[in-house]
Amino acid sequence: MEDDRLDLGLVDSIDATDIGEPGQRTFKITAISPRGEAVIWMEKEQMFQLGLSIKQFISLEDPPSSPTRYEPEYPAPPVPGKAEFKASDMRIRHDPRSDIFTVEAADPDSEAEDDNEEPAIAVQFSFTRAVGARLSDAALEAVSGGRPRCELCGGPKDPGGHVCPKTNGHHKGDFELA
Asked: What is the CA 144 to chain-centroid distance, rounded?
């Protein structure tokens, strides 16, 4: 099977944002490089895990003392590519020699050769440690702006009220905790 992923290489711009009102939000990462642009829509948990993983890795691993030069994995497309889809699967990896992070995202509409095969990677993009730190902060900020949490069960409270399973749904108001 031919690999027809869009490799943006080292991105010039990357941003993680949310769109919509709490409880009705969608999340996306936009990555731009001279090789093209990708808009990857994802679930809140995917964005949270991506931001958290990068932040944890950066805080635990020191950068190499003399990193090697980054070389993109795949050749540049003949014309800048463009992709926009909702990711079914996302992966992040780190090259310890160059200290570059790479995110891979699979498009659920990509065709696998058989049912046991994972969806093909549609887009990958790479970024430096400094850009990763900014992406992590933006991702974690985007996911933190949601609905307030119930003090008992941790579930989201809707503007119209919250039926808390910890009280068998009998208490629908806010709690005063001492």
From this structure: 14
Q: Is the CB of residue 174 less than 8 Å from the CB of residue 150?
A: no
Instruction: Return the closest-CA partner of residue 139 out of 12, 42, 6.
Output: 42
In degrees rounded to 5, what are phi and psi of residue 81?
-90, 165
CATH assignment, 6-146: 3.30.2450
Residue identified by tokens 């995917």 is: 46
More confident site: 35 or 161: 35
Q: Where are the domains of the chain?
A: 6-146, 149-178
Angle, helices 129-144 vs 44-60, to 10°: value is 140
pTM of the entire predicted model:
0.78
Could you give the 3-state DSSP secondary structure of residue 125? Answer: strand
Q: State pLDDT tens for residues 112-125.
A: 555 566 667 799 99
